[in-house]
Amino acid sequence: MISVSLDVSAVPAEPVGAGRYTIELVRALSVRDDVDLALWSRRSDGDRWRALHDGGKRAFVDGPVVGGAVGAVEDRAPDHRLTRMAWEQLRLPRLLAGSEAQVHHAPHYTMPGRTRLPVVVTIHDMTFFDHPQWHERVKVPVFRAAIRRAARRADALVCVSHHTASRLTALLAVRGRVFVVPHGVDHHRFRPVSPDPDTDAELLAVMGVQRPYVLFVGTLEPRKAVPDLVAAFATVASRQPRLQLVLAGRPGWGADEVARAIDESGVASRIRRTGYVPDPAVPALLRSASVVAYPARDEGFGLPALEALACGAPLVTTAGTAMAEMAGDGALLFPPGRVDLLAEALGTALHEGPDGQERRRRGLLTAAEHTWERSAAGHLAAYRWAADRADHGPDRTGEAHREAR
Q: What is the pLDDT of residues 132-188, one digit of tens each?
């Protein structure tokens, strides 16, 4: 048994990306009997974490859970982002010192700078260094400093793909051990055949979505290259008069470029923007799509691409990225920035023949290898390594940059 402290205070009310990763990791850890899990949430957010169930089997509650993993939910962090980040540096170390935790996990780049407790930090991607123009200007120096601190001080770092791990170790000197632990997928929700087709149809109708459609799921922000997808769809749409493009995700920083691309596309009436999509509707969208397009130019992992494969959807995504690493030969790949080749890939996927059916089969096999249970086991390996390192001293030759899955 290992006692783990986990900071969930950065998870927003409408989680995507790193927020969904944190939620799914907590769910997977909470059903294990070899870990005691204490969560640090925002003051206004404790009830959500106490009420959160793992597939209806377990809820988070105050105090120990008999035979289970969640020891407590401490809603101590301030709600405002800047004061929360200050709390992490000034107050959280003292709270950790008084806890029974053996290791602390910071799942979103930042970590308390002064704590004697072993710390594990998740690094999702290195785009703050590689592509700062894709982020709000004010965030770049903050997260660059946070990642440098994690590289310098964390006992272990979890990278969600080999792509991220290679960029981390290429750009920074890393003191701790790097663990490559891919995301999982909830196969009860994300599967090719709906347990209730009528409910799927109702969810699509509520969102105003009609088949056939090309689907994008994700925040509308510069790195996702949604304007490229809009341009490619305009090319394909001229040969597919009933086809729609569905953009499922809330606007992020830089979303004005997406609106401009839609206005100039010539097919704006055939492009549906749904806004943020609640969790129950995402699998329905994915398994009903004619094609799922995830044209992001860089990602740490690209969870929507994995969920598309799990739903048996034809997937088009970007070569040379973490999505290509994950999907292998289960997806059609195109070079980033090549709108013409993206349009060609969409056209190929829409006219699925034997090759497309084989890609879908391989995609399902790839998705089957990714579970949140397996991801939780990889995180536990990092926790145990960090705790053992603290028990036996920091100097362990040859361990600094070794990767594990």
A: 999 999 999 999 999 999 999 999 999 999 999 999 999 999 999 999 999 999 999
Interval 174-213: pLDDT, tens = 999 999 999 999 999 999 999 888 999 999 999 999 999 9
Contacts of range 97-101, beta carbons closer than 8 Å, 24 or more positions apart: 99/5, 99/38, 100/3, 100/36, 101/3, 101/4, 101/5, 101/38
Closest CA to 46 of 28, 59, 31, 30: 59
Which sequence spans correspond to the domains of the chain?
2-184+372-392, 197-368
Q: Do residues 287 and 194 lie in contact, with contact meaning Cβ atoms separated by under 8 Å?
A: yes
Q: At what angle do helices 256-263 and 226-237 cross, to 10 degrees?
A: 20
> In sequence order, what are the residues at sequence separation of 6 or more whose Cβ sits closer than 8 angstroms to the Cβ of residue 266?
234
Length of the chain: 405
**DSSP calls for 120-157:** EEEE---HHHH-GGGS-TTHHHHHHHHHHHHHHH-SEE
Please determine whether the domains at 2-184+372-392 and 197-368 fall in the same fold group of CATH: yes
Helix (H) or strand (E) holding 310: helix 303-310
Angle between helices 354-368 and 303-310 (to 10 degrees): 110
Side chain identity at residue 202, one-letter code: E
Give the chain's end-to-end CA distance (angstroms, integer).
21
Instruction: Write the CATH number of the domain with boundaries 197-368.
Output: 3.40.50.2000
Of the candidates 105, 89, 97, the one whose C-alpha atom is nearest the C-alpha of residue 4 is: 105
The dihedrals phi and psi of 76, each to the nearest 5 degrees, come to: -110, -20
CA distance 379 to 387: 12
SS3 361: helix
Which of 91, 79, 31, 21 has the alpha carbon at shortest distance from 58?
Answer: 31
Q: Which residues pair with 214 in a beta bridge?
A: 245, 291
CA 143 to chain centre: 17
CATH architecture of the domain covering 2-184+372-392: 3-Layer(aba) Sandwich (3.40)
